């Protein structure tokens, strides 16, 4: 993580405030439950559970989420050497999905207060029920919000009482997860899969040190050794179907990305694999 990200994470790691309650609070509990010292907010993918605006609570559609990330930390009264936010707070970004449309907004973090600026959004047409939720979330996720966090939940509360209840989405484990390839890497550039090959390539690492899956056309198996940030993949054994067109192109790219020693990076439910020379790789998501 870059220094700016570390500074933001430190600045919005919330300290305890008020009295602590027991764990296991439901979405309707006041302020989203207990507030734990040092509960992280940055670097966590938060799934929206529900939004309450003008006293009306609406459950979130699948896909509604928000993540707070580092931006221009340190500018205009940013964090000091000890990582705490300065007089004007620490600047960052909020980005995510309202339930249909993606959004991004500048944020300023100071203590347990997150101030969200005007949002930029995509403009896709959405089903009426989802569009209604998006309008509610857009209204609630703006201005000055008080943040109360526990290990697994976050509640953002506006001065007028509107609130957003969120749940932390855990990072998928490397082993034991089925990963579906969603894009291919060439150096620093990510490319879409060949048209018609979406969803064809997938793999999983077993607890026994085997790598199994489908390259896009043929099923395969290999031995794999896991280190702190690398995978060492042994020779691939696969079925022998003749593969042409998009499936064949995908198979070659995935085979190249799963050859020899590769670096891996996990973030939330995403996995990036990069070859030792940085020239080739892939991005996959947890199913």
Layout of helices and strands, plus pairs?
Elements: H1 3-11, E1 45-53, E2 56-59, E3 65-70, E4 90-97, E5 102-110, E6 113-121, H2 128-140, E7 143-149, E8 153-158, E9 163-168, E10 178-186, E11 189-192, E12 201-205, E13 210-215, E14 219-226, E15 230-233, E16 237-238, H3 245-257, E17 260-267, E18 270-275, E19 280-286
Antiparallel strand pairs: 1-2, 1-3, 1-9, 3-4, 4-5, 5-6, 6-7, 7-8, 8-9, 10-11, 10-12, 10-19, 12-13, 13-14, 14-15, 14-16, 15-17, 17-18, 18-19
Walk me through this protein's architecture.
This protein is mostly beta strands. It folds into two domains: 3-168, Lipocalin (Beta Barrel), CATH 2.40.128.270; 178-286, Lipocalin (Beta Barrel), CATH 2.40.128.270. The chain has helices spanning 3-11, 128-140, 245-257; strands spanning 45-53, 56-59, 65-70, 90-97, 102-110, 113-121, 143-149, 153-158, 163-168, 178-186, 189-192, 201-205, 210-215, 219-226, 230-233, 237-238, 260-267, 270-275, 280-286. Strands 1-3-4-5-6-7-8-9 form an eight-stranded antiparallel β-barrel. Strand 10 and strand 11 (189-192) form a beta hairpin. The protein is elongated and about 65 Å long. It starts with a helix and ends with a strand. It holds the Pfam family META. Residues 44-164, 172-280 form the DUF306 domain. Residues 67-92 are annotated as: Disordered. Residues 73-87 have a biased composition (Acidic residues).
Strand content: 35-45%
How many β strands by DSSP? 19
Return the average pLDDT rounded to an integer.
82
The computed structural class is mainly beta
What is the N-to-C succession of helices and strands? HEEEEEEHEEEEEEEEEEHEEE
Q: Span from first to last CA?
A: 26 Å
pLDDT under 50 segments (min length 5)? 1-12, 15-38, 72-85
Radius of gyration: 22 Å
Q: List the total number of helices.
A: 3
Major sheet summary line: 8 strands, antiparallel, barrel
User: Percent of residues in helical segments?
Assistant: 10-25%
- Named CATH topology of the largest domain: Lipocalin
Instruction: Based on Cα principal axes, name the global outline.
Output: elongated
Name given to the CATH architecture of the largest domain? Beta Barrel
Total count of domains: 2
With strands numbered from the N-terminus, the spatial order across the biggest sheet is: 1-3-4-5-6-7-8-9
CATH class of the largest domain: Mainly Beta
């Amino acid at each position: 993580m870059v220094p700016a990200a570390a500074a933001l994470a430190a600045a919005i790691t919330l300290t305890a405030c008020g009295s602590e309650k027991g764990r296991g609070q439901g979405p309707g509990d006041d302020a989203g439950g207990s507030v734990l010292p040092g509960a992280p907010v940055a670097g966590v993918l938060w799934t929206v559970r529900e939004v309450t605006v003008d006293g009306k609570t609406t459950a979130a559609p699948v896909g509604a989420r928000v993540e707070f990330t580092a931006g221009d930390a340190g500018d205009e009264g940013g964090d000091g050497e000890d990582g705490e936010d300065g007089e004007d707070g620490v600047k960052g970004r909020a980005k995510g999905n309202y339930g249909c449309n993606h959004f991004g907004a500048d944020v300023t973090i100071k203590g347990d207060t997150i101030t969200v600026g005007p949002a930029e959004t995509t403009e896709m047409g959405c089903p009426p029920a989802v569009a209604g939720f998006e309008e509610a979330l857009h209204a609630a996720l703006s201005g000055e919000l008080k943040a109360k966090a526990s290990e697994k939940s976050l509640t953002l509360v506006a001065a007028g009482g509107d609130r957003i209840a969120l749940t932390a989405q855990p990072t998928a484990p490397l082993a034991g997860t089925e990963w579906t390839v969603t894009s291919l890497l060439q150096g620093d550039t990510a490319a879409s899969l060949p048209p018609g090959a979406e969803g064809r390539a997938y793999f999983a690492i077993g607890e026994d040190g085997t790598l199994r899956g489908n390259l896009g056309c043929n099923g395969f198996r290999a031995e794999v050794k896991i280190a702190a940030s690398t995978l060492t993949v042994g020779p691939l054994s696969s079925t022998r179907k003749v593969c042409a067109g998009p499936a064949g192109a995908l198979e070659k790219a995935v085979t190249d990305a799963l050859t020899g020693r590769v670096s891996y990076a996990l973030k939330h439910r995403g996995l990036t694999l990069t070859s030792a020379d940085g020239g080739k790789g892939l991005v996959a998501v947890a199913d």
